């Protein structure tokens, strides 16, 4: 919609224009009035109309003065001059002021609307161009960081070709001949807590806030670009470009910058982070090395004695093998089967106590331990009959449904996360074991004997008894020495042999009675089972295939 301003000291002239204008069809929703140029300028400044129709002869500020002033302040305002036949000087002024058109008094309806339509059409074209320009800028501003992120990740992951991607590199590092490059990694230790408390569970908003802080802290000595690691949601990757900085200054500048970032994030949002700073190189393609160094530094940070926030070296010590939880899983499995919660708790406490006593347990070890514990308990849960659909492949998502997270900022919190994972699976397994105790495996056997001639699927029993496929088949085999499919085949073949003793039954009929739609398929199954065809079996019994 459009807004029009009429400036004329004569009220009848203003009324005539208001009456003659086809405002609705033109898309004009507001027509303003002013009695002179001075009042007109005040309205232009306050209301920002799209089109102004201005009379040239007016008191206080005439049309000439108004046009000069409005052209300076609002050059994009569409100006239409109104004047009498004899005012050639005014027409000249209108041309000099780049007026869109010139109307003579008394105003004619047709001419007025033609002039207004031309003005509206020019505004539409202009708005379309502005919209396209804004959209293009928005698209560019949104896509360039994503493109930069994509290129940087390809360098970090070493999936980029140095020669074929030189142009892309120059796009994100325009002048990289005399520059140095490096990476720092931020690990968010309390991600879920802050996301819930401060950002209404909005991850994108949290990441936006963090990267904004990093950019605002800034430095005159280098440029930085930060983004979330697409493969590790707790990790922010920061790339540094140092220009004209001596190599021996770079490390201290980086540490100072990261300290400011860490402090600012904590002050503003309560975010707790640790940071590792990687190697510096004059080759942008060596950012992959810098990333791996920073990652190794972060993974080596001692969770048991976490005092600092910025790290620039690796603790060359690995305790994962000696602290692996795998060799304790058989004990945990037995305790879970007996629903002995105190035993399970003691096993886990003994494990964590041993770690703490060693004095060193790095964050890389902690991450791997949690993942290992999750996978092992997942397998045990399935073995105990928990259905796959009840379990999540994303163990953090599973914990979040229980109101807990994988956040840990200390070894004590890591220990709590371990127990949360254990309790999650312990409850699932306990429910499954309780359900299986109310289940009699003989029910499946009886069903097979009564329905052997039908298509029998394992899902029929898993849905009926709320037990996992693996657990159900394990129970059946333990009880009868056969898998369920094997037992169905056994019952069918024994019934086939029995039916073959009746010489009045054709093999085709027997095949159908056993649930085989194809006689040849039945014959093949019989031969595979007894090493003899149905026909030969009858011949051995001295029978002839009935006509």
Structural class: alpha/beta
CATH topology of the largest domain: Alpha-Beta Plaits
Total of DSSP H or I helical runs spanning 4+ residues = 23
Mean pLDDT: 84
Note the overall shape: extended
Which CATH class of the largest domain applies here?
A: Alpha Beta
Organism: Paenibacillus psychroresistens
Domain Response regulatory: 3-120
Main location: cytoplasm
Modified residues (4-aspartylphosphate): 55
Which keywords apply here?
547 residues; Rossmann fold; Alpha-Beta Plaits; Response regulator; two-component regulatory system; extended; 11% strand; 5-stranded parallel β-sheet; 5-stranded mixed β-sheet; alpha/beta
SSE diagram, text form:
Layout: E1 2-7, H1 11-20, H2 23-26, E2 28-34, H3 37-47, E3 51-55, H4 63-73, E4 78-83, H5 88-96, E5 101-104, H6 109-156, H7 166-172, E6 179-188, H8 191-198, H9 203-217, E7 222-228, E8 235-243, H10 247-269, E9 273-277, H11 287-299, E10 310-311, H12 329-337, H13 341-358, H14 363-383, H15 395-401, H16 411-437, H17 442-451, H18 458-465, H19 469-480, H20 484-500, H21 507-513, H22 519-530, H23 534-540
Parallel strand pairs: 1-2, 1-3, 3-4, 4-5, 9-10
Antiparallel strand pairs: 6-8, 6-9, 7-8
Helix pairs in contact: 3-4, 9-10, 12-13, 13-16, 14-16
